Amino acid sequence: MPTLKIDGLDVTVEPGTTVLEAAQFLGLEIPTLCHMDGLEPYGGCRLCLVEVGSGDKSRLVTSCTYPAEDGLTVRTNSKRVLRSRKMMVELLLSVCPSSRTIQDLASLMGVQKVRFKTRNDDCILCGRCVRMCKEQMDAGAIGFVNRGHKRKITTPFNMKSEVCRTCGGCIYVCPACNLRCQGPNAPGDVCGSCLSLQPTCTERFDDYMCYLGPTGNCGTCIKKEEN
């Protein structure tokens, strides 16, 4: 069975386990959006990025699709990872600022502004609805069409589907359908009402893992320096 190191902790997992599942086994929290238990991994939202490898050979990968390999070194809260996740949240907010789910993720990661032009779309192309319809509802009534900025989710030939049972499963799993607390006429792109504190020790220890939890969770190292 593969044994890997995540944030300084060794963990042995079953073959076929993903890095995300291995981290969750250790109790380490990695933010996700397109990922959902019971559905095939998609890796579309890029929020679950982690850094694998070391030195100049390290790279960012989606933890929900990357296999837990023997001897792998993983960092879930490095500066590079946190910076990339914040940028992805900004991009998602620029697409769908009305989503309460995305607003909560923004607050969790300390995102306070959006540097990209807001589009106010009603879909972030996470693919949850497509996979739910195909894998759980056994219908396949909707799917992706086109590429690039024209990519969207619709029924075949954009016509009413004969196999759709109007079960509502697609709406149930959709993060964009969960309206933010301020409603449709929110004053700004970022709510920030549930803003959490920024990680502290990542500024000093890129690979640091203390006994209290993952990097950046508590700020103990800062308090020790102040004392």
Give a structural overview:
By secondary structure, the protein is an alpha+beta fold. The chain folds into three domains: 3-77 and 199-220, Ubiquitin-like (UB roll) (Roll); 81-121 and 178-197, no CATH class; 127-174, Alpha-Beta Plaits (2-Layer Sandwich), CATH 3.30.70.20. The protein is built from six helices and seven strands, in the order E-E-H-E-E-E-H-H-H-E-E-H-H. The chain has helices at residues 19-25, 79-95, 100-109, 128-136, 169-173, 220-226, and strands at residues 3-6, 9-12, 49-52, 59-62, 73-75, 143-145, 152-154. A five-stranded mixed β-sheet has the order 2-1-5-3-4, with helices on both faces. Helix 2 (79-95) runs antiparallel to helix 3. It is globular, with a radius of gyration of 19 Å. 30% of the residues are buried. Residues 223-227 have low confidence and may be disordered.
How would you sum up this structure in a few lines?
This protein has 227 residues and is an alpha+beta fold.
